[in-house]
Input
Amino acid sequence: MTEPDTPTATDAVCELAPAAGQAVQGLTPTADDGPRADCVLCGEPTEYPADHAGRTLCAVCTWQQAQRIACAG
Output
């Protein structure tokens, strides 16, 4: 009978984790001085440029969404 493979410290890394540079991509706003995108929930201007792809949220709505997700599970 063979023993099942036991994970080691090097096996604990998730293979689906993005590279370090990609992990924060989209979380850090760019430093453009142009018009800002509006938050899709409250309508306040965000720190992201107007041409930012995806669903833009202001800092307050981002925090509130994180709280809702954390409490939902």
User: Anything to note?
Assistant: The first strand starts at residue 36 and ends at 38. The chain has a mean pLDDT of 74. Residues 59-72 form the longest helix (14 residues).
